[in-house]
Predict the structure.
Amino acid sequence: MAVLVGPIVMLGMLVVVPVGLRLAGIPGLDRIRRLWPLFAVPGAISLWLPRGDPATALAACYAVGAVLLALHAPRRLLLLRHLPTSRAPAELALLTALIAPSIAATALVAERSGHPLFGFGLGILALTVPHFHFAGFAAALIAGLVCRTADGRAGRFAALSVPLGTLLVLTGYFVGDWAELAGTVVLTAGMWTVALLTWRSIRDRNRDRVTRALLCVSSAVLAVTMLLALSWALGEATGLPHPTLAWMAATHGLGNALGFALCSLLAWRRLQNRTDHEGRTA
């Protein structure tokens, strides 16, 4: 499982977060985005070292960057009071994206040091790192972007369900499997809505073939990976047969990382580049 988790986490640190920060369009993030490699590269190196002080120190470098990113969230939260109600769900989703890497980084430091955190073993901590890069940061960011462009209740539901579902899943770590199941249900409903809205947007014939293909793959993969997440959470809560963690990492984790997050971000980046180009030539 470690062979899969390491590269997935590296993808989240080195690609997903900086590309996502560019797409967020939040004033004040440019500096932390430019500095991000200074934090992400040590964090990525820490994944391949034996547990101990050197790995912990490198993971702590990543944690510093994640905390600096999270510190932007309170400022953005204060701005919600001055925004129209229709824009609040998208902003809440983006705020969740800003906070999620700090949770991942906390788990990373504890796991690299070899010490359980809040009673969670090293295996669970290792899986928490990719979870909050993809089910936290990437899912919240993309739901927020979808909400910005999809004017309607479905977009707002998708944007609100990701923060709520993520919070419930995190609460489930401490309360029990049923709370985690509730969070997974909410998160699954929201991400399926994201997939549906993304699929509908493929009908836009103004988009190039590559962008349409990336959006198609991301929405199709998301439908499957969230079904896997739901089956796992249901099995944990009820005792019914369900996939193992290793199997989930190889299917749900890898699919979310490559099929959903990476394809979605590449598609949104292409859309942003096209919008910027059209703005310059107008």
The first helix runs from residue 2 to 24.
